[in-house]
Design a protein that fits this description.
Calcineurin-like phosphoesterase domain-containing protein; five-stranded mixed β-sheet; signal; plasmid; Metallo-depent_PP-like; Purple Acid Phosphatase, chain A, domain 2; alpha/beta; 32% helix
Length: 314
């Protein structure tokens, strides 16, 4: 009888353990398509075959020197809906900030930003054949403009996008750009605060953040990354206070990187629970599949999702 009771107890404990452990994967992409569409279409097929829970595109859906036309933006929006699972998108600088360039068509960046919001963020649903309902910062009347800042939860992990872009986060060029930065930066800071507040109140096991810009963690001069100073300072304080794994996924530099940019054994103030993933981009039309296992200490593991058809031909 005692042995039978012990076996039942062990079975219950194992069942409880498996119920608490969450395992799923998501895919991260960015800085594509640049030019030819076929490689991106190949990538969509590969991602659909991998069957992730969702995919996130971290911005730059075109090169900085290609025209910022309405027709191109609409074409990419339609491509986003060819993903089988939900796809979430956060804008990059090439979609609006850099559209003033002559090769990009000499558009007004503020007008292009408005078009991106009107085109890609018409409701609180993701892209993809299978939709996912998202929380949007615009639900708060104080930040009604910021439909692009979105949030969702899965498996004990809180996910959020923030509209942080290259070209120094648009802290540049002229007063109109600076004014835009000031307003959007305030929204981003508030969204970051509320994301960690939500994660803490829900007892989340991890937080994952997505934005477009490479914030230049290795840059020692704040003058060269002034557009990221405030968001990085707040992020650092929130990561330390949260104490559990935090992953930032970004693009911008087109190089696959997984590291811990705020960890150094020689630095007494190092932060060991913060991870950075930079995705492929430009001519490297591949993805990164992130495995999430909340029963492991680091929670995240990373696997390049290479597309055979997109590899260089020897």
């Amino acid at each position: 009888m005692k042995n039978r009771f012990r076996m039942v107890l062990i079975a219950v404990m194992l069942a409880t353990s498996f119920a608490l452990a969450e395992r799923f994967s998501f895919v991260a992409i960015g800085d594509m398509p640049y030019g030819e569409m076929a490689p991106f279409e190949n990538l969509v097929k590969a991602i659909n075959a991998a069957r992730p829970s969702f995919t996130v595109h971290v911005g730059d859906i075109k090169s900085g020197s290609s025209p910022c036309t309405d027709a191109y933006m609409l074409k990419i929006r339609d491509l986003f809906n060819t993903f089988s699972a939900p796809l979430v998108y956060t804008p990059g600088d090439n979609e609006w900030t850099d559209c003033h360039r002559e090769k990009a068509g000499k558009y007004d960046p503020i007008e292009r930003l408005a078009f991106v919001r009107q085109t890609f963020f018409t409701n609180n649903q993701s892209f993809g054949a299978q939709k996912m309902t998202l929380e949007q910062q615009s639900a708060d009347p104080k930040f009604a403009k910021f439909v692009e800042n979105e949030r969702w939860s899965l498996g004990g992990v809180v996910f959020a996008t923030l509209h942080v872009v290259g070209s120094n986060n648009n802290l540049q060029r002229n007063q109109a750009a600076v004014n835009e930065y000031i307003e959007r930066n305030a929204a981003n800071l508030s969204w970051l605060e509320s994301t960690f507040a939500k994660a803490s109140s829900e007892g989340a096991k991890a937080v994952v953040l997505f934005w477009q810009a490479d914030p230049m963690f290795e840059e020692t001069s704040e003058d060269k990354r002034s557009g990221f100073t405030e968001i990085l300072a707040l992020l650092k304080s929130k990561v330390k206070a949260f104490g559990r794994p935090v992953l930032l996924v970004h693009g911008d530099s087109h190089t696959f990187i997984v590291d811990q940019p705020w960890y150094s054994e020689s630095d007494a103030s190092n932060i060991g629970n913060f991870y950075r993933l930079e995705v492929y981009g430009s001519a490297r039309v591949h993805a990164v599949q992130v495995e999430v296992d909340t029963d492991t200490p680091g929670i995240f593991s990373f696997r390049p999702l290479m597309v055979r058809e997109n590899l260089p031909k020897n």
